[in-house]
Amino acid sequence: MNPNNPRSQADTSSVQAAAHSLGVEVVLASARSESELDAAYASLTQRSAGALIIMGDAFFLHAIKRLAALAVRHRIAAIFTSRQYAEAGGLMTYGASVTDSFRQAGVYTSRVLKGEKPGDLPIMQPTRLELVINFKAAKVIGLEVLPHLQQLADDVIE
């Protein structure tokens, strides 16, 4: 997590609540800058973290290639919210479809240009989520992607 992100506390609380209900321990690592990423991954490796959820954050999106490379190098199964992470060499992503979100933005733009007031338009939530799995990263990490999970994936990178 990026402690400079105001959303990080709420996101972390949600992850901790879900993990608690599953009987899974959460180990937190934080980074505010690229210079802190190596230490964050090293702390996860030192504490034998079995998996990593990279919180959605503009800084992390900027450092996406480095995040992916560090996860693979440290052999940590990591998931991110943006498909660019899997495309950059990370293991998997699960999040809102960027294509679908842009399509919705186009629909809203059209409605505003036709005279509707932006304040009168309802707030939209993403309705299409994508699961993308990078098989190359899975192989390097030493993970077998189960056939059932392969079938659920919207896209696979081989």
Description:
This protein has helices at residues 8-22, 37-46, 58-62, 64-73, 84-87, 98-113, 135-141, 147-152, and strands at 51-53, 77-80, 92-96, 129-134, 155-157. It has 158 residues and is α/β, with parallel strands linked by helices. It has a single domain, classed as Rossmann fold (3-Layer(aba) Sandwich), CATH 3.40.50. Strands 1-2-3-4-5 form a five-stranded mixed sheet. Strand 2 (77-80), helix 5 (84-87) and strand 3 form a beta-alpha-beta unit. The protein is globular. It starts with 7 loop residues before the first helix and ends with a strand. The mean pLDDT is 92.
Overall pLDDT level: 92
How much of the residues is beta strand, in percent? 5-15%
Please give the radius of gyration in angstroms: 18 Å
What would CATH call the class? Alpha Beta
Going by CATH, the homologous superfamily would be Response regulator
Task: Please write the string of helix (H) and strand (E) elements.
Answer: HHEHHEHEHEHHE
Low-confidence stretches: none
The general outline is globular
Q: Could you give a short account of the major beta sheet?
A: 5 strands, mixed
Number of domains: 1
List the helices and strands and how they pair.
Elements: H1 8-22, H2 37-46, E1 51-53, H3 58-62, H4 64-73, E2 77-80, H5 84-87, E3 92-96, H6 98-113, E4 129-134, H7 135-141, H8 147-152, E5 155-157
Parallel strand pairs: 1-2, 2-3, 4-5
Antiparallel strand pairs: 3-4
Spell out the key features of this protein:
single chain; 158 residues; alpha/beta; Rossmann fold; five-stranded mixed β-sheet; 13% strand
In short:
The protein is an alpha/beta fold. It has helices spanning 8-22, 37-46, 58-62, 64-73, 84-87, 98-113, 135-141, 147-152; strands spanning 51-53, 77-80, 92-96, 129-134, 155-157. The protein has one domain: Rossmann fold (3-Layer(aba) Sandwich), CATH 3.40.50.2300.
